[in-house]
Every structure is written in structure tokens, then in C-alpha cells.
Amino acid sequence: MHGMPGGVLGGLGPAATVHFLRRVVELTDASRDQDHVDLLVWQTGSTPDRSGFLRGDNESPEPALVAAAQALERAGATFVAIPCNTAIVWVEQMRAAVGIEVLDTVDETVAAAREAVPGLTRLGLLATDGTLSTGTYAAAAERAGIELVVPDPDVQRETMSVIYDGVKAGNPVPRDRFDALVEHLRGRGAEAVALGCTELSVLRGELGVEDPTVVDSLDAVAVATIRRAGGRLRP
Which residue windows are coiled coil (predicted)? Predict the structure, then answer.
């Protein structure tokens, strides 16, 4: 029996929203249309860039994020899923503005990493400069008793290039560039690597990466969305 519709605050990277919705469908145990979960999608591509604001390059996305959460609540959503990591900086402001649950993408990803690697002690993170600067993953890892491992500065610059010059710009990224980022963090002692940027989630799908210790933030939120919307996970 399904719950009431879940809300998806999309458009914070349109390719990531499309990939997220695809993953919700693919991860749902369904043999007919009616087995899939009900979702309301609020596509807000006009929301100011989250990382850009944190760098001081553009206006704050907070008003748009809060307004979108409120719109989803008015439309009948019983919770809000956000297929964006950097937007979690404003999760408490969104929660304060609505009476429904707002999922924390970062917490869901850390929880998925612990599930993927029982006894996890060191988690690597690939994310934007903006996400790293906010400390959301560091705080979530600390709450879970896990040490966070981040790239060296030159590898972080390469991560940003893969995200912005590659995925966001619609340019292909070779598999060896992605693998090199993951292996860098493994070389620093990471037992699992979190893809803390939804563009990296899109890239993982495009490249067909199947390593279960490479933990996808979009998949983590997709799983949480299916569960809260009353669906069943594919075995």
C-alpha cells in the first residue's frame, strides 16, 4: 500500500534530476505501473547556483529552495527529497518553513556507505568545493563516528573539472579520469568513496560503475524516497 506522494525538489542540475527519477524507477520492485511510487516534482532550474553562492559569485539560493519546499507541501507532498548535495546547507531553513519531512541527502549517503561497508571507519568524499567548504559531510561523518578523507588540492581541482567542464557542460569524461579520483582516495585510506555531487552520480551511471563501495548520493536518496513513499525496493 503506497503512502502519500513524495516531493522531489528538482532542477538543481537538470541532468541529475532526470537520473534521480530514473533510479527511483529502476530501484523499485515493480511488476506493474501501480507498484511504482507517487511523486510530485518541482523543477526549479532557475534556483541560483549553490556552489556559486558559497564562492561569493551569485545571490543566495535559500529563498528559492524554501519556496520550492513550501510549494511541494501545498501540492500534497508528505516529504521532500533533494537530489543535490550542496543544497543541504539550507536543509534546516527548508525544514523550518514546512510541516513535512525534508530528507538530508548527506546523512542518507553516509548511512548508505555504512551499509555498504560494515565497520566503516574512513570514508572518502568526491564533491564540489562548495560542498567541501560547508562541512556538511564532515559533520555527518563525525556524527557516525567515521573519519572523512578528502582529495589533495590538485585532485580536488581535477574533481571540479570533471564536474563542471565535463558533466555539467555535457562533455564526455573518460572512465580512467573517474577511476583515478576514486583510487586517489583509496590510496589515502578510504574504505568507501561517497559521490557527494549528483553530477558524479550521473557520470557513474554513464560509465557503468558497479563497485558497491563507490556510494552514490542519488541512489541513497532514491532508496530513502522509495521507502518513505511506501514502495518496495528491488531485491
Answer: none
